[in-house]
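Bench notes, afternoon.
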Amino acid sequence: MDAELVTAAKPGEHLDLYHIGRSVLVFYYGAKALATQDFDIVWMRESALEDQVAKLFGKGTARAREIGLYLDRVPQALPPLPQWFRKRCCCVPGHWRVLRLWELEPHDLAATKLRSFRPKDRQDVQFLCDAGLLRPETLRASLESAFAWTAAKDGDEDRDRAFANLATVIDYLEGRSMTL
């Protein structure tokens, strides 16, 4: 990706990509048993470089078929993401000239999966739990930050579902349940 962007970038211009989703577990945590076909990034804003990389490596493109993985831009509000998640991200080392790849902190990554909590999301969160990367109180803080503008009394179905799923994860982390 970086090589493709070098000619499109202005001198000194960079593209920050915030990597989320299952591919984070595969690439950084060795979760080889968890297969994925996409490389999810947070869609931060409209930018010429981000549009260019999406055109080159998005779903159905020749480059994506060639490498067997496509780039998928996920809107910030969709997972939803905890506030200030960028401050907790780690920069992924690499010899890139234009790209800067960022990995979400494990609690923030897990929080993005609690609203939907589909079977794959459950597997991903269980992987993070089993790897010893999640603590109940920190996960709760991440999720609360993701829903900072609503409270339990507001009747937000997405928030209510996410917090019910959090309770399931905490039960698992604290040994009260054997599965997610």
